[in-house]
Amino acid sequence: MKKSDKSIVGHTDDFLEYLDIEKGLSNKSQETYQRFLKKFVSWLKVNNLKDLMPHELSEDHIRKYRVFLSQSFNRYTKEPIKRSTQNYYLIALRNLLNYFTDRDILSLPSEKIKLTKSKSDERMIKFLPVDQIKKLLDAPKTSNLPGLRDRAILETLFSTGLRVAELANLNIEQIKITPETKDLEIVIIGKGNRPRPVYFSERAVKWVGKYLETRKDKEKALFINYKGPKTAAKRLSSRSVESLVKKYAILSGAPTFTCPHSIRHSFATDLLMKGVDIRTVQEFLGHKNISTTQIYAHVTSKKLRDSHRKFHSLKE
Fold it and tell me: Exposure check for the chain: N or C terminus, fewer CB within 10 A?
């Protein structure tokens, strides 16, 4: 191991290049790492540590950074950053230290960064029962273009279980709807550049088809923005999709936690409650590991318990 002649801040661009070339991470993953590391770099600068060398980073620095994270607030919700989110920042820092090790640069070992134990309720998924989903889907007024687009978006989210970024990236050319089309299967490139099929139900096909019938433009994106300057990008952003879901959650009386990801959770739990096996749900969601999908296990536990009581218990 050798001491580097560059500061930690000076290594960040090299680290991102390493993620691209040697780790083969997608552009989206690289952007995520850059965003999480930006907070650490900002913390170093605020604390007059911008010239801190890798070998000078100590456990005390890490402790102080963790305190800083625990006292930080989400700029949108104005609430403290969740422990699970704090861990994402720490994982990014861990990987930076792993990069130093891989380059034989003397630094603090990555295992010295312990992740924060999440509260048990943070791992509990939040989803909407079917009756609330129906109210949410019916909330947009489809007499105007934005409302028709929004109905198509909500129907697509619940039918496919797409992540919000995956939905925002859809293009018109992927959607082949004819008068005879009842349901639809397309292949997308999801998280981690992994291809997977997604399925549009008959309902989703109906509303996406109605929306496409109104489109006279030449935009590539499936879902576009009808506001803003004519020169602005038309593709609807992930943030805009999140905002419109929040809007219709309020209008329909859905829980305050309702967002695109909770619709994805609702998609998965609806399948599980109807008896679809968890490995099939894993494929629908595009999870790389089954362990990720198993967060839904508690949803079916009550159903299993009730079935056991009904069909297995001996009567006195």
Answer: C
236 in a domain, yes or no? yes
What is the C-alpha separation between 25 and 192, in angstroms, rounded? 7
pLDDT on residue 136: 97
Active site residue ranges:
163, 191, 261, 264, 287, 296
pLDDT score of 152:
98
Residues lower than pLDDT 70 in the chain: 117-124, 297-316
Same domain, 145 and 41: no
Are residues 86 and 177 part of one domain?
Answer: no
Residue found by looking up tokens 């494929």 in the block: 283
CATH number, position 99: 1.10.150.130
Specify the pLDDT at position 224.
96
Is 239 strand, coil or helix? helix
Domain assignment present for residue 213? The answer is: yes
| pTM metric for this prediction | 0.63
Q: Are residues 151 and 273 in the same domain?
A: yes
Task: Collapse the DSSP code of 195 into the 3-class scheme (helix H, G, I; strand E, B; otherwise coil) and give the result.
Answer: strand
Tokens matching residue 262? 């909770």
Q: How far apart are CA 222 and CA 232, in angstroms?
A: 16
CA distance 58 to 62: 7
The pLDDT of residue 22: 84
